[in-house]
Design goal:
single chain, 289 residues, alpha/beta
């Protein structure tokens, strides 16, 4: 039996992730009280369920401390558990709540247009982050701050399809001008490398296009950066495996997230895919089916 537990910040996209898993064939349950987790799983086992996704959030704040031990109980029973945590920056969450006019589960009823209401919302988000910190620590984190729902669905489906008994390397390209992904375990800045943006004919292309790839492959500094990142990861992967890590996210950033970071993510993923399970994300590019 495989269980995906989705937790995270209110407004970070848990419903989108749950819909993605439903599309992938999971039986999905939203807002299950933590007290019922083990009993619910036992019931689904009796029904011969194979793939179940469960969403929990801060609405069950009083009983959330029970969850880590319950997950261990399920693992001890031989059940495959994959915890995912959806996150976003405080500014992003405030904007989403303001746009939808919804009330945060931990905030008091008020109009979102006032300064006092905004401060109360920020305080509620900070409290929620504190209450969920233990679950975040043992989950794979996806930062949804600047990605579209289609991208989030693709990320979730890719993660769930990867083997759980091996370390999965997630390589992610991003633009520094849109912020560093909060789900990154390692961040590499490649903005000092030659930029195809300034080359005639390459500006409108991306690191997925042959022209940009040929240009960057011919640059000695790009090759050196690629080798240095690969050597660093090679040196530490064994330690990460011993630490029982299931996923490690390596973020590579350039100015616009279109050329250099995309190219290096493609090259690094290809290099490590010969020995490791690898996934690729290009945050600033449209999701591809």
């Amino acid at each position: 039996m495989e269980i995906v537990l989705i937790t995270g910040m209110s407004g970070s996209g848990k419903s989108v992730a749950l819909h993605a898993l439903e599309d992938a064939g999971f039986y999905c349950v939203d807002n299950l009280p933590p007290e019922l987790l083990v009993a619910f799983v036992e019931l689904e086992q009796q029904h011969q369920a194979q793939r179940v996704a469960i969403a929990m959030d801060v609405r069950s704040a009083a009983s959330l401390p029970l969850v880590p031990q319950q997950l261990q109980t399920l693992r001890d029973q031989g059940i495959l558990v994959k915890p995912l945590f959806l996150d976003a920056t405080a500014d992003t969450l405030v904007r989403r709540y303001s746009e939808t006019r919804r009330r945060h589960p931990l905030s008091q009823p008020s109009e979102l247009c006032t300064d006092d209401a905004r401060r109360a919302l920020v305080d509620a988000i900070a409290l929620e982050r504190e209450l969920l910190s233990a679950l975040r620590e043992q989950s794979h984190v996806i930062d949804s701050s600047v990605i579209r729902p289609a991208q989030l669905q693709a990320f979730v489906k890719a993660l769930i399809s990867s083997p759980s008994d091996q370390l999965t390397l997630v390589f992610e390209s991003f633009a520094f001008k849109r912020g560093v992904p909060s789900d990154a375990d390692f961040v590499f800045d490649v903005r000092m490398l030659p930029n195809p943006h300034y080359e005639p004919g390459l500006r409108e292309q991306t690191g997925l296009d042959p022209g940009v790839q040929e240009f960057l492959a011919a640059q000695a500094d790009v090759r050196r950066m690629q080798d240095n990142i690969a050597q660093f990861l090679d040196s530490w992967l064994a330690s990460l495996v011993r630490d029982h890590r299931s996923y490690v996210t390596v973020a590579v950033g350039c100015t616009g997230g279109q050329h250099r970071s995309v190219y290096l993510v493609e090259q690094l993923a290809a290099y490590f895919s010969e020995r490791r399970v690898t996934l690729k994300r290009h945050r600033e590019l449209p999701a591809r089916s």
